[in-house]
Structure formats: C-alpha cells, structure tokens
Amino acid sequence: MSRRFRQFDWILLFSILGLIAAGMTLVYSASQVPAYPWKAGLFTRQTMWLVIGLVALFTAAAVPFRFWEEYSHLIYGVAMVVLASVLVIGVEREGARRWLSFGGFQFQPSELAKLATIMLVARLLSRPRLDITKLSALLPVLFAALVPFVLILLEPDLGTSLSLPAALVGMVFWAGFPGVVILIVATPLLSTLLSFKLWLWVPYLVLLLVFLRMIGVKRLLGGAIAVVNLAAGFAAPVLWGTLHPYQQQRVLTMLNPESDPTNSGYQVIQSKIAIGSGGLAGKGFLEGTQKGLAFLPEQHTDFIFSVLGEEFGFIGCVLVLCLFALLIQRSVRLATKARSRFGAYLVVGIASMIMFHVAVNVSMTVGLAPVTGLPLPFLSYGGTFLLVTLIQSGLLLNVAFRRNEV
C-alpha cells in the first residue's frame, strides 16, 4: 500500500482538485446576478451535485478497474436502454428531448452513455492479439460508438454526439491505427467545409493530392480519396439542407457574428467583450460587469470561460488552461506507464473527450467555433455533467493508483 502511494500521481490529483475549485468559484460568481435573483440557487444545487460527485469519484477510484472492465458490456447495455428511453419519455425543451426527470431531479443520460461507451471500447481494444488495422477488429469498435452517436443525434444534440468520435479517434490511434489513415478519413469533412469557398476548396484539393503523393499512397487509393473529397464537396449543399435552421445560423454567426449583433451573433459578441474587458489580471472576483448586468448569456454554462476571462483576466485563463494541459499530459503519461491495456485505453478515451470539450468550448467563447452547447469540464454548471466528469476523474485516479496491475 505504501508503495502505491509513493508511485501515485499526485500532480494528476492536484490538477483535478484545482479545476474543481476553479469551477465552484466561477459558478458562484456566475450565480450572483442582481437582475436574476433566482440564479443564486444555482451554486447551492451545484454544491449538492459536487458532494454526490465526490462520493462517485471516490467509489470509481476505490473499486479496482478490473471490475469496470468485466462489467463494461452490462454498463453499456443499461446506458443504451436509458439513452433510448429519452426519445420516448424524456423531458422536451425547445424541441429537444435530452433529459429524464425523477421527482425534482433531471439528468442527461447522454453523459453517462459517453462514459459507458469509452469503457466498452477500451475493453474491445484490449483483447489479446488484436490487430486494429483489420476490419474484423475495427467494426465492433465502430458499432459500439455508432449506437450512442445516433441516439444522441436524434435527441437532437449535435455537440454532445461529436465528442464520441473525438474519444474514439484517440483510442484507436493509441491502439495502433495509423495516424495518416485517420487524417485521410477526416479529409472529406474538411472538404465539405471548404467547398463553400471555391477559392479555398480548389487549392485544398491540389494540396491534398500533393500530400498523398508525398506519403507514398498508391495511385488507385489516392484517386479514391480524391473522388470521395470531390463528392463530399459537391454534397455540401445537401448536407447543409439537413441542418436545423438554428444550426445553420450558428455556423453563419461563427463566420460573421456582427452580421446579426442583436440576435444570433449576440452571444459571441458579448462573450468576446467580456473576455477582452478583463485585460491582463481581470476586474476582480464578483466584479464582472458583463456578467453582473446580465449582458453575458448562459454565463453559468456554455460561457463560463467568459466569466473567467472578465474577472480573472488573461492570467486566470492561462492558469486554468495550464491545469487542463497538466491533466491531459499526466493522463497521457499514465497511459504509457499503465501495464493494463484496458486501463491505458480507458485513460486515453477520457483524456481525449475532456480535451475535445475544452477545445470546442474555449473556441466557441472567442468566436472560433459555432455555439454548440458543449460545457467546459469541471467549470460549467450542470449536475449530470459534473457528476460524470468526477466519475471520469475517479477512473483516472484508479488507474494511477493501480498502474502496475495487469
């Protein structure tokens, strides 16, 4: 036991505790809005979820990860059933069914489903003598991720569903799937985005062909990749038509928020004003005017990073981002040292998902990505999201404590 404590990653624990403290501080600040006195109760509810989450964290850390590996199929199955039930009996808000309600509590099964999927994929990838480059090995992994992806997309919740591929990419790459192939598979998406600007799309296709030639891709395969990219570009108008109007508007707002400053562009504009007005050291705790005067929308959830920037400035933003970077770095280090393949894949999946959430949320607040509704781990208000984030943290600490176990 004493040896385990000596080998334990205390820096990982420090980063987790630091992010929890930062999150509770920011939620308290975001709840102090004189124009909306009801928001004062947000901190109380978040504190309650924190207590529940800490119990879950210690439970996830205390139970040997072999237990989670052995019962990953069962956990995944239950999570999918609960996730599917949302489409039938879920609480509807603004045309979306994402929550289940029990008494006075509501929670999002999609958050639990994401963690259950990571567990199952980690088990599938840790099978003996697995060659992930073979289709027979890759298909079960893809199917395990496809089921929750489709169910979450049907709610609809595009932002949450996209975090699953992010985790999957990190895990299959760690399992030995060629990074170049992953990059090539992602090219049709990039082609779709760039096709809206012909002067960007044509040079992109030329550079893609040059890149494929440089890395030695055979002509037949290179031609197939080029055709797929062309098809993706020509299909862009059709794909655009499948998006909901609010999703289309989010993309247009990202490209030019000033085109509609009082409506769809309002969130991003106010967010950038809040972050920019914080300067180097910020206005001070509870002194944010954009937040205090309720100019900043969804300041306790989607735009909690804007509160950080306004009240703690550039220095505060850098410190929090350093804590996230430290968490990711220690997770990658842990994955390299863990003797258990399941433990390593579990850590990589969790770290990949956290990194995706951070990248998208922060980019969203500064206008570099569409407003997707993806919360910021540890910091954003939200009971289910905080609970699952703390469970994930517990699993990271679990592997750190037992990294020498096979």
TrEMBL record:
It catalyses: [GlcNAc-(1->4)-Mur2Ac(oyl-L-Ala-gamma-D-Glu-L-Lys-D-Ala-D-Ala)](n)-di-trans,octa-cis-undecaprenyl diphosphate + beta-D-GlcNAc-(1->4)-Mur2Ac(oyl-L-Ala-gamma-D-Glu-L-Lys-D-Ala-D-Ala)-di-trans,octa-cis-undecaprenyl diphosphate = [GlcNAc-(1->4)-Mur2Ac(oyl-L-Ala-gamma-D-Glu-L-Lys-D-Ala-D-Ala)](n+1)-di-trans,octa-cis-undecaprenyl diphosphate + di-trans,octa-cis-undecaprenyl diphosphate + H(+). One of its GO terms (molecular function) is lipid-linked peptidoglycan transporter activity. It is found in: Cell membrane; Membrane. Pathway: Cell wall biogenesis; peptidoglycan biosynthesis. The chain crosses the membrane at residues 48-67, 74-91, 135-154, 166-186, 198-215, 220-240, 312-332, 344-366, 378-401. It comes from the Bacteria. Keywords: Cell membrane, Cell shape, Cell wall biogenesis/degradation, Glycosyltransferase, Membrane, Peptidoglycan synthesis, Transferase, Transmembrane, Transmembrane helix. The keyword Metal-binding does not apply. Pfam families: FTSW_RODA_SPOVE (PF01098). InterPro entries: FtsW/RodA, RodA/MrdB. Its EC number is 2.4.99.28. Signal peptide: none annotated. The keyword tRNA processing does not apply. Belongs to the SEDS family. MrdB/RodA subfamily. This is Peptidoglycan glycosyltransferase RodA. The gene is rodA.
